[in-house]
Design a protein that fits this description.
A seven-stranded mixed sheet has the order 2-8-7-6-5-3-4, with helices on both faces. Strands 14-20-19-18-17-15-16 form a seven-stranded mixed sheet, sandwiched between helices. Helices cover about 35% and strands about 10% of the residues. Helix 6 runs antiparallel to helix 12. By secondary structure, the chain is α/β, with parallel strands linked by helices. It is globular.
Length: about 950
């Protein structure tokens, strides 16, 4: 009886939106007696997994949290003074509770529909303004994945902008080692030569297209780079500076000493260490390079009434639309973390940030003075927050041992970039959390006994800034009112909620975007990311302190391997496109290991995600397109012909399954067999893995590599456009080539190297996926997949009378998403797909995916966690919109002045005394009973994208612009 009571309230039943009787109602509607009968008709029998997943039994929410807490307790949270671009910091509680832990912020989707995304777009504009002001450059993007990736993107951009045939990129040996490693990994397939050396002695020639510097250097030294920059510019090379953002509150910004690009991390702006991530990197450059910037840029435009409005700007809003011609495969950002960093800047303001930077620097000066009194030599007279102390190897070991005894981590600096070299120095990095008591503990470690002086006997505050005097910043920053208005917590709280109210998230309605899987991110799954045992650990802490993380990684890797049918998993890729890239590099390395480096042709279906060809080109491959047939499936004849034509140089095939068109292609095993018969490998894009879990496994039906979007299938929330995680699974023969790392020793000798700054990517959000799998168990995961397929077919069935469903499988069924064909409406009523997308906002919905993968269509994905009632509400909105279109077709309503063309309708537009539209205010604003009870208002009308691109602005507007 007790077991029955527990089962009736299992987590799986809470995750899956519809009750069993509602599931049966949908099945009856489709003509199936059982869910299994539907799946048997939808998924090809040849690829079915005919046994349950071998996973641990589902746990209750209470039990799973208790188990994870026990695992977390095996992590040791030491005080970290390691630095290397990662610093402990203080997350203001008003930001932690109301952004990081607030589903109104973490369940929103990427702002492709800007009218319902104005809140996070404003926060991102604040982020860009913060970066522009602090770096002294003209434009900035809305964040990248991490500092090392941003540096690699800067290298690629510099190469693309180079006007001469240069192929060498110089990297200062004073850069962070993880950054050097990622840059080296990214350079190899592009044929770029990396020279790592001393910037003080390096001589430029015309073979150099760019250079990377660290500011301050990794060991804390502040260098004057002006002469170096001049030498670089003299030969046409661009200079990228990886700069610590907090230091720029005190130091001359890169833009003022000639840098062309600035990159770095915003982690220390209130974002927890999290064992490496997620953290928002920044990327800033000159306006003349705006069309080459990787990632997204938020720009200012106006709506139909002339009101300032924000949206994603330029072609950078979707670089991968350019497919193999893209300069980057970045299609995501770290929005939630960028929002946190921007709010940190808003909360503290320019003076608050300067005070924090000054305090950190003053403590560093005191630490240095004390160490000198103890007889130690500081490596540089110019520093901000990091000191280097040169020592004999034996003394290094003694001090490190003494520090560990005090639960303190210090950085060991080696003789060379190679981790195995003899230690020659120790570095100490201070941060916002450092106290005077910490200084005494550090002095005691170096003294080996009681500290022979007091704090009062050390350097006076007046001398504190002598070490940065030659580099002191004179320019103002963060002068915009937004950074000077919300320092009281009441005002800050209201500002956060004003912005939140402008955004539609899962707290408002379903977000039915095809290919995006906006499913429930359960509160239980989210709780552990704020636990100190997970979020307060430095990514380069000794492995002996991270036992809990290692258990979590091992268990998650084991579960993902079982779910996918692969032999090995790497958790390092910190986004889906990074998983694509890592998987392709693994394939490339495999061929090289067999003496077949000449294999460089990658076959990609025309229907593929745009990041696929972009990733292939970045991996040094030549893209050959494969045609699709009229049903949207891969054309086997064309595949066979192209595979035969390129049999000698074929590296592999990239395929999405179920297909990008939302169909289980029956011939997937044949597709894999064709590629294998010509010596290629099969890379499977796992964006649609949520339609396979527990039903079929890529490793079983022929895939060699697959990336998994944990931010889709495994419940990590989208956060308004990031964070994500894109780990890869590989077959046994590819395991030796999985990503490694230069700082933490992971990976085989044949590893592709590092593709992210941290060894396990954005480790602190992995507990979300661990919790999801633990809570669901094998049966729950499988049921979720089946219901996701049911929900998509239910929507397709209900709407096909009104909007043709473009692609279906052989049984007339779709997979987990369906494509509605709206193209005929343009001819019959002058209605574009965007008109329907904007009208859905009046009904309180986020539009499905618009005009992708087929222009003029909508791709709908309901997920398993939406209830039948919500599915019906969406269907009824779409049906009613079709009736509104029918009135246009019948000539009853004007083709140019109607509820669709004028959507979305704002409150401002409705209360005007000059209402001249041929439809009522009521029809515009309250088309359904639900909208009367719960109305989501857009704060701006339809946005003019073209105006914004013609008048490019990517930083905060002056306040008078809003008053106008």
């Amino acid at each position: 009886m007790v077991e029955e009571a527990q089962e009736s309230f299992s987590f799986a039943q809470r995750h899956i939106g519809s009750k069993p009787e509602e599931i049966q109602q949908m099945l009856d509607n489709l003509g199936f007696s059982t869910l299994d009968a539907l799946i048997d008709k939808t998924v090809p029998q040849a690829i079915r997994l005919n046994r349950p997943l071998q996973l641990e039994a589902a746990r209750s929410e209470y039990a799973a949290l208790a188990e994870l807490k026990e695992i977390a307790s095996k992590n040791q949270v030491f005080r970290s003074f390691i630095g290397m671009g990662y610093h402990d910091c203080i997350t203001p509680p008003v930001i932690q509770r109301n952004i990081l832990e607030n589903p109104g912020w973490y369940t929103a989707y990427t702002p492709y529909q800007p009218e319902i995304s104005q809140g996070r777009l404003e926060a991102l504009l604040n982020f860009q303004t913060t970066i522009i002001d602090l770096t002294g450059l003209e434009i900035a993007n809305a964040s990248l994945l991490d500092e090392a990736t941003a540096a690699a993107e800067a290298m690629a951009m510099s190469c693309g902008l180079c006007k001469q045939k240069a192929n060498t990129f110089f990297v200062s040996q004073d850069c962070h080692p993880q950054t050097i490693a990622v840059v080296e990994t990214r350079a190899i397939p592009l044929g770029i030569k990396i020279v790592v050396g001393d910037h003080q002695t390096f001589t430029f020639d015309e073979s150099i297209f760019g250079a990377l510097l660290q500011y301050p250097a990794s060991d804390g030294t502040i260098y004057d780079y002006r002469s170096f920059v001049e030498q670089a510019h003299a030969v046409g090379a661009l200079v990228t500076v990886a700069a610590d953002l907090l230091s720029l509150c005190l130091l001359t910004p890169p833009g003022e000493f000639g840098a062309d690009i600035a990159v770095g991390s915003t982690q220390r702006f209130g974002v927890p260490l999290g064992y490496g991530g997620p953290h928002a990197a920044y990327f800033a450059t000159k306006e003349q390079h705006k069309r080459q910037v990787p990632g997204r840029i938020v720009g200012v435009s106006k709506d139909v009434c002339g009101k300032p409005a924000l949206r994603l700007a330029l072609q950078t809003r979707e670089q991968h639309i350019r497919r193999e011609k893209a300069t980057s495969n970045i299609c995501t950002a770290q929005v939630l973390l960028a929002v946190m960093a921007s709010m940190y800047a808003v909360y503290h303001g320019p003076q608050g940030l300067k005070d924090i930077a000054q305090r950190v620097h003053q403590l560093t000066v005191l630490l240095a003075d004390g160490l000198k009194r103890l007889g130690y030599t500081i490596g540089s007279e110019h520093y901000f927050d990091t000191l280097r102390i040169d020592l004999e190897p034996e003394r290094v070991a003694q001090i490190i041992e003494a520090a560990l005894a005090q639960q303190i981590n210090l950085r060991i600096i080696d003789d060379a970039i190679a981790h195995s070299a003899a230690p020659r120095a120790i570095a100490i990095s201070l941060d916002e959390t450092t106290t005077e008591a910490d200084l005494y503990d550090l002095w005691q470690i170096f003294a080996g006994s009681e500290v022979p002086f007091t704090l009062e006997e050390l350097a006076t505050p007046q001398l504190a800034f002598e070490s940065i005097k030659p580099f002191t910043r004179s320019s103002d920053y963060l002068t915009h009112p937004v950074f000077n208005c919300y320092h009281a917590e009441t005002e800050m709280l209201r500002y956060i909620y004003r912005l939140q109210a402008k955004d539609l998230s899962l707290t408002t309605s379903m977000i039915p975007l095809g290919s995006c899987t906006m499913k429930l991110n359960a509160t239980t799954e989210m709780l552990p990311i704020s636990w100190w045992e997970f979020c307060k650990i430095h990514p380069f802490a000794p492995l002996s302190q991270t036992g809990g993380y290692q258990i979590l990684f091992a268990q998650l890797e084991q579960a993902l391997a079982e779910i996918t049918g692969f032999a090995g998993i790497s958790l390092q890729p910190n986004a889906g496109a990074q998983g694509e890239y890592a998987g392709l590099l693994v394939i490339r390395q495999y061929h090289e290991s067999r003496g077949e480096a000449y294999r460089n042709v990658c076959l990609i279906p025309e229907s593929a995600h745009g990041t696929n060809p972009a990733s292939a080109v970045m991996a040094g491959m030549k893209v050959v397109a494969i045609a699709c047939d009229q049903q949207g499936n891969i054309d086997l004849t064309d595949l066979q012909a192209k595979a035969e034509k390129h049999t000698h140089e074929l590296t592999g095939l990239m395929v999405t399954y179920p297909s990008t068109h939302g169909v289980f292609e029956a011939q997937i095993k044949d597709i894999c067999a064709i590629v294998h018969s010509h010596g290629g490998q099969v890379y499977l894009d796992g964006a649609n893995m949520n339609a396979q879990v527990g039903i079929c496994r890529p490793g079983d039906y022929g895939a060699d590599v697959c990336h998994l979007n944990l931010h889709k299938t495994f419940c990590i929330p989208h956060g308004g456009g990031g964070p994500g995680m894109g780990p890869i699974g590989v077959a046994a023969h590819l395991v030796p080539f999985l990503p490694g790392h230069s700082v933490v020793q992971i990976g085989d000798e044949q590893s592709i190297g590092a593709i992210a700054a941290a060894p396990w990517g954005s480790a602190s959000i992995l507990p979300i996926s661990w919790m999801y799998i633990a809570l669901m168990g094998a049966a729950g995961l499988t049921q979720a997949t089946k219901v996701a397929i049911l929900n998509a077919n239910y929507i397709a069935h209900r709407l096909q009378r009104y909007y043709p469903v473009l692609y279906k499988g052989k049984a007339g069924l779709v997979a987990h998403e369906c494509i509605l064909d709206l193209r005929s409406l343009k001819k019959s009523a002058g209605i574009e797909v965007d008109d329907i997308a904007k009208r859905l906002m009046d009904y309180g919905f986020h539009a499905p995916t618009v005009s992708w993968p087929v222009a003029g269509t909508m791709m709908v994905e309901p997920t398993e966690s939406e209830s039948k009632a919500e599915l019906d509400r969406f269907c009824e909105a779409m049906i009613q919109i079709r009736q509104e279109i029918a009135e246009i077709e019948a000539g009853k309503v004007d083709m140019h002045d109607n509820v669709l063309k004028n959507a979305p309708h704002t409150a401002d537009a409705l209360i005007t005394s000059d209402w001249q539209h041929p439809y009522s205010r009521e029809q515009a604003a309250y088309p359904t009973l639900h909208t009367r009870e719960h109305k989501f208002w857009t704060t701006v009308g339809r946005i003019d994208n073209a105006y914004g691109d013609r008048n490019f602005v990517c930083s905060c507007l002056p306040m008078e612009a809003y008053s106008e």
